[in-house]
């Protein structure tokens, strides 16, 4: 089992504080959802975990299976089994998707191992069928000229190819139609098991209806102020974020978090 432990994480960009003490534990075998209003720090958290150099970590720790990953460059974090699906995938003209996937898979191999190209491509094509992704895209430049849905399918294809220990999905469902959301969710769900964990960053309930996360967290003003189960998603769907904003405060540095209806009922 792999465990990603985030303690007291603080980070800023261009001198502006964004994360103000995030505490979160992600384990393989679990799917977590992270929600929160715009500007709360969700994408910042994803980028800091993966090592985007634009963000400056000003406090706290991120530990993966006993290794302090804050000292590691992006590619070393990926080698350890971390994966980030971007909200806005980058277009790379001149690099075919097939070559990109093959090279990425080769970097994950241990010294002395060789990639069996025929079986590798067979697996990639099977994954493309699973995603309803036209195999002609293998010969096209990565994300170049792709629609939004095609870019997100390409991200999930990378997930299925690399088989990371822990994956972060930064609003992968943003801008997708119903069929694309189902396809993306099916790809993530296919990975589900004791050797894989996920953090789904989203604004919407729909993808969570397909994935049914074990844990749901709310990020507000750069801190996780509420954690629980799917009842939180239903509460946010019904009431929005106003009740979180109104109930949030600080007392000795500790967030004051309002109870959901579900937790209130449990006390009756």
Automatic annotation (TrEMBL):
Q: What family does this belong to?
A: Belongs to the ABC transporter superfamily. Ycf16 family.
Domain ABC transporter residues, every copy: 4-246
Q: Does the keyword Nucleotide-binding apply?
A: yes
SMART domains (UniProt xref): AAA
Out of the domains of life, which is the source? Bacteria
Q: Which GO terms describe its molecular function?
A: ATP binding; ATP hydrolysis activity
Please give the NCBIfam families that the UniProt record associates with this protein: sufC (TIGR01978)
Q: Which UniProt keywords apply?
A: ATP-binding, Nucleotide-binding
InterPro entries reported in the protein's UniProt record: AAA+_ATPase, ABC_transporter-like_ATP-bd, ABC_transporter-like_CS, FeS-cluster_ATPase_SufC, P-loop_NTPase
PANTHER family on file: ABC TRANSPORTER I FAMILY MEMBER 6, CHLOROPLASTIC
Would you tell me the protein name for this molecule?
FeS assembly ATPase SufC
